[in-house]
Specification:
Length: 746
C-alpha cells in the first residue's frame, strides 16, 4: 500500500517533525539497549582482574611458604645481653640482663594438666584446634598497624609466640611478623601440638630471670613444677604478660594486678570445662611466694638504667624478655661528661648532713633530651628516684607560672607596679569561714617584714616579693596559674587554690626542669626522654631513632618577657651567687618552702636547663625542716641549691658558645595600672568569739598561707604555710589541716 503524500506545506512540515522525533526515539532505544552489554563487559573484566590478583597472591604466598626456612633455635645460651650506651653511642653504661641463661627444660608429662590448661586459658584457648595462627587476630593486628600502631601488636597464638621467642630476633617490623606467621604454619605442620606446647612452656620468660616453667616454679614458689597447685599455675600463666606488672614481690599494685589476672584465667578454665567450679572456688591466690629482690645496677647509674628500661617498656612497647636477652643496643641521651660533672657538683657542694637528699636533672630546651640526672647515691639501697619520683613543695619557683598567667591576660606588663609593702591582708587568702579580721588569716608578708613600696614585676621577681605575687595571683586567677604550669610541662597533680602562687603544690625535679626548659626554648614544650636510639641484634633491621616530641605552647614575645624577668634573681636578686660566678647570661628562680622543708634553684641558659631540689626526711619518710642544722645551718634556695647548680653548669657549659637571651618584647606595655586588691595594711580588731581553736581533724576547702616572707640570700625565702603538706615526699598527702605558721623564704 502506497503512503499518501502530504497535500500542503503544513502537512509536509508535520510529517518531517514526526520522522525526526521517531529517529530520536529510536536512537535512545538503541543506546539504552547497548548499555547492559557494556556494563557486563566491565564487570567481567573486573572479576577477571580480581581473580588474577588473587591467583598471583596465592602463588606469592606459596612461594614465600616454600622458600621460608625454619631457622636454628635462638637458644638462651647464645642470646645476647642488651647494652645501654651513653649519648656518644660508644661508651657502655650498663648491660641489661637478669637471667644469664637461667633455664631448665622439662618434658610436658611432668607439667600438671592444670598448668597446661591455665596457659591455654590465658594465651590461646583454641590452641589444639587452630593451624598455628589466628586469622582474626592477624586481621586485628593488621588493622592496628594501618591505624599507626605497632606492626607486631596483637594477633599471636601460642605457636606464634613460641616462634618469636625461640627462632626470631626481637625486631618489630612487618617483615618479621610475616616470617613469624609463615614459620608458625610450618611448625604446626611439622610438630605435634604437645611438642609445640612443651617447647613454649620451656622457653617463655616468667620474670625473676626465669626462662621456662621449671625455673619459674622454683623462682616464685621454690618447688618442682610437678608440685604446682591450681592457683599457682594460674599465677604463672598470668605473670608472663609482663612480670614487672604482675610479680607480687614488686609491690601492692602488682599484687592487685596478679589477683585480677589469675581470677580471669581460673574463670576461663571453668568456662572451657577444664576446671570444676568447686576447684575454682578452692583456688585462692597464693601466699607462699619466695621473697624476691630484683637485681639492679648500683650507684647513681642504677637510676639511669631503670629509667631506660622503663622507657623501653612503656614508650616503645619492647617486652622485658627482649630487653633481657634480645641483644638490643640502646643509646641513651645521657652525656657522660655532663653526668660526671653533676655527680661531682653534688658531692662537692651538698650539705654535710646525710639525711638531706638531692634530686637534679638537666635537659635540652626545645628537644627534651635528658643529658644528666641524679636520682640518688645508690639505687641498690634506695629504689625511689629523687629526680623523677620524690615530690617537694615548689616554693617560690611556682611564681613564674603566675607571672605567665598574668601576662597572658593582656592587662599586665613587666612595667606594672604593685604595692610591695609588708604585711598585707588579702581577703582572698583568708580561710573559708574564718573571721577575716583575725590576725593570722589571710596575712602575707615579705622576709623580715621588709617593705618595697611600689615595685614593678621585674624587681618583684628578682627579690621574690610575696605581697606583690599574692596580688598578682588574685588578678590572674589561681586556675590560670595552674594551667600555665601544666602547659609548661608540670605533670604532677596541681590544685587551683589561691596559695599556689607561693608554692603549695608538690612537684618533682623533672616537672620543674621540663617547665623551665619550655621557657628557655621560647615557649616550645618538649617531652623529656632518655632513649635516643634502639638497635637490634639483626643488623638487617633498621634501628628505631627517637624524634623529639615538641609543641609551641606559649607565644615567643610572652616568653621573652618572662625570660627577662627571670634574669633579675640572678643579676643581684635572690640567686645572685649564679650571676657572680657563672660568667654568662642565665635566668632562674629560687624557692624555699615553709619551715625550710624544701629548697630549690631552677634555671637555664639558652642551650641547657637544670633544676636542683633538696629536702630532708626522717626514717619513716616524714618531712623534716632544714633549719639550724649542725653543719649546714639554714638551707634555702639561695644557698646550697644555687651553689650546686652553678658548679654543674660551669663544667657542663665548658666549650659551649655563650648565647644571649632574646630581647624583651614588653608586651601589654600600654596596659592600665592594676586596681588594688581587697586588703588592709594592718589587722583589724577581731570580734570576740567562742569558737574552738583550729584542729587537724578536717582539711580546709582551700589551702591557706599565713605569714609568708621573701628571700634575701642567704636568708630563707617566703613560702606558703603547710596547708597541703606531704610528710613523705613522693607519697600520699596527709588529710589533716595544719595550722599555718610563718613560712620563711630564701
Amino acid at each position: 500500500m502506497s503512503q499518501r503524500k502530504p497535500r500542503t506545506r503544513a502537512e509536509a512540515r508535520q510529517a518531517a517533525a514526526a520522522e525526526a522525533a521517531s529517529s530520536r526515539s529510536g536512537g535512545r532505544r538503541a543506546t539504552a539497549s547497548a548499555s547492559p552489554s557494556t556494563g557486563r563487559r566491565w564487570l567481567r573484566r573486573g572479576l577477571w582482574a580480581v581473580l588474577g590478583l588473587g591467583i598471583l597472591g596465592l602463588l606469592g604466598l606459596g612461594v614465600a611458604y616454600a622458600t621460608t626456612d625454619i631457622p636454628a633455635p635462638n637458644e638462651i645460651a647464645t642470646a645476647q645481653a642488651s647494652i645501654v650506651y651513653y649519648a656518644d653511642g660508644k661508651t657502655e653504661m650498663a648491660r641489661l640482663s637478669d637471667s644469664e641463661g637461667n633455664r631448665e627444660s622439662v618434658p610436658l608429662s611432668t607439667v600438671p594438666e592444670h598448668m597446661q590448661k591455665a596457659m591455654l586459658a590465658a594465651e590461646d584457648q583454641d590452641f589444639y584446634q587452630n593451624q598455628g595462627i589466628s586469622p582474626t587476630g592477624i586481621a586485628r593486628a593488621v588493622w592496628v598497624a594501618v591505624k599507626g600502631g605497632q606492626a607486631t601488636q596483637g594477633g599471636s597464638t601460642i605457636t606464634q609466640q613460641y616462634v618469636k621467642n625461640y627462632f626470631l630476633t626481637s625486631d618489630r617490623t612487618i617483615e618479621r611478623k610475616a616470617r613469624e606467621i609463615l614459620i608458625a604454619v610450618k611448625i604446626d605442620q611439622q610438630q605435634t601440638k604437645d611438642e609445640i606446647l612443651e617447647n613454649y612452656l620451656n622457653t617463655i620468660y616468667y620474670g625473676r630471670g626465669a626462662y621456662g616453667i621449671q625455673t619459674a616454679a622454683k623462682a616464685y614458689f621454690n618447688k618442682d613444677v610437678s608440685k604446682l597447685t591450681v592457683a599457682e599455675s594460674a599465677f604463672l600463666a598470668a605473670v608472663i604478660r609482663g612480670p614487672s606488672l604482675y610479680d607480687p614481690g614488686l609491690g601492692e599494685e602488682q599484687v592487685a594486678n596478679a589477683q585480677e589476672r589469675s581470677g580471669y584465667i581460673l574463670d576461663a578454665m571453668v568456662e572451657q570445662g577444664w576446671l570444676s567450679q568447686a576447684d575454682r572456688d578452692a583456688a585462692t591466690f597464693p601466699d607462699t611466694f619466695v621473697k624476691y629482690k630484683p637485681r639492679s645496677q648500683g650507684g647513681t647509674t642504677g637510676y639511669l638504667v631503670e629509667m631506660v628500661k622503663d622507657e623501653l617498656v612503656t614508650k616503645h612497647k619492647i617486652s622485658e624478655s627482649d630487653i633481657d636477652r634480645g641483644g638490643l643496643r640502646v643509646t641513651s641521651t645521657i652525656e657522660r661528661p655532663k653526668q660526671a660533672a653533676m655527680q661531682k657538683a653534688i658531692k662537692d657542694e651538698r650539705p654535710a648532713e646525710d639525711d638531706v637528699s638531692v634530686g637534679m636533672a638537666s635537659v635540652k630546651p626545645g628537644d627534651g633530651a635528658i643529658v644528666a640526672l641524679y636520682g640518688g647515691s645508690d639505687y641498690a639501697k634506695r629504689q625511689q628516684n629523687a629526680a623523677t619520683q620524690d615530690k617537694m613543695q615548689a616554693g617560690s619557683t611556682f611564681k613564674i607560672f603566675t607571672l605567665i598567667a598574668a601576662l597572658q591576660t593582656g592587662d599586665v606588663s613587666l612595667r606594672s607596679r604593685y604595692d610591695g609593702s609588708s604585711p598585707q591582708y588579702f581577703e582572698e587568702f583568708a580561710s573559708p569561714g574564718a573571721d577575716s579580721a583575725t590576725e593570722r588569716r589571710g596575712r602575707v608578708k615579705n622576709f623580715g617584714n621588709e617593705s618595697f613600696g611600689r615595685i614593678d614585676l621585674r624587681r618583684a621577681t628578682g627579690s621574690s616579693v610575696n605581697t606583690v605575687y599574692a596580688a598578682l595571683n588574685i588578678e590572674a586567677g589561681p586556675e590560670k596559674s595552674m594551667k600555665a604550669a601544666e602547659d609548661a610541662g608540670v605533670r604532677s597533680p596541681l590544685e587551683p587554690n589561691m596559695a599556689n602562687v607561693l608554692g603549695t603544690d608538690y612537684v618533682t625535679v623533672m616537672d620543674m626542669v621540663s617547665a623551665y626548659a619550655t621557657i628557655a626554648a621560647e615557649g616550645v614544650r618538649a617531652e623529656p626522654y632518655i632513649v635516643q636510639e634502639i638497635g637490634f641484634q639483626d643488623e638487617g633491621v633498621a634501628p628505631i631513632t627517637v624524634e623529639p616530641q615538641t609543641q609551641q605552647v606559649f607565644d615567643k614575645d610572652l616568653m621573652s618577657d618572662v625570660i627577662d624577668a627571670m634574669t633579675y634573681p640572678v643579676e643581684g636578686g635572690t640567686a645572685r651567687y649564679v650571676g657572680r660566678n657563672l660568667g654568662r647570661p642565665a635566668a632562674g628562680k629560687t624557692g624555699t618552702s615553709e619551715s625550710f622543708r624544701s629548697a630549690w634553684f631552677d634555671g637555664y641558659v639558652p642551650q641547657l636547663a637544670t633544676a636542683v631540689g633538696l629536702y630532708r626526711s626522717g626514717e619513716d619518710g616524714e618531712e623534716l625542716a632544714m633549719e639550724d642544722l649542725p653543719e649546714s645551718g639554714d638551707i634555702t634556695g639561695g644557698t646550697y641549691p644555687t651553689r650546686i647548680w652553678t658548679a654543674f653548669m660551669e663544667d657542663a657549659l665548658e666549650g659551649v658558645d655563650v648565647e644571649q637571651f632574646p630581647e624583651p618584647a614588653n608586651i601589654n606595655k600600654d596596659a592600665a595600672p592594676p586596681p588594688p586588691p581587697t586588703r588592709t595594711q594592718a589587722p583589724q580588731p577581731a570580734e570576740p568569739t567562742n569558737a574552738p581553736p583550729p584542729t587537724t581533724s578536717a582539711p580546709p576547702a582551700t589551702p591557706t598561707p599565713s605569714e609568708t616572707e621573701t628571700e634575701k640570700e642567704p636568708e630563707p625565702e617566703p613560702e606558703p604555710s603547710k596547708t597541703n603538706g606531704n610528710p613523705n615526699p613522693g607519697g600520699p598527702k596527709p588529710t589533716g589541716t595544719i595550722e599555718p605558721v610563718a613560712p620563711e623564704d630564701d
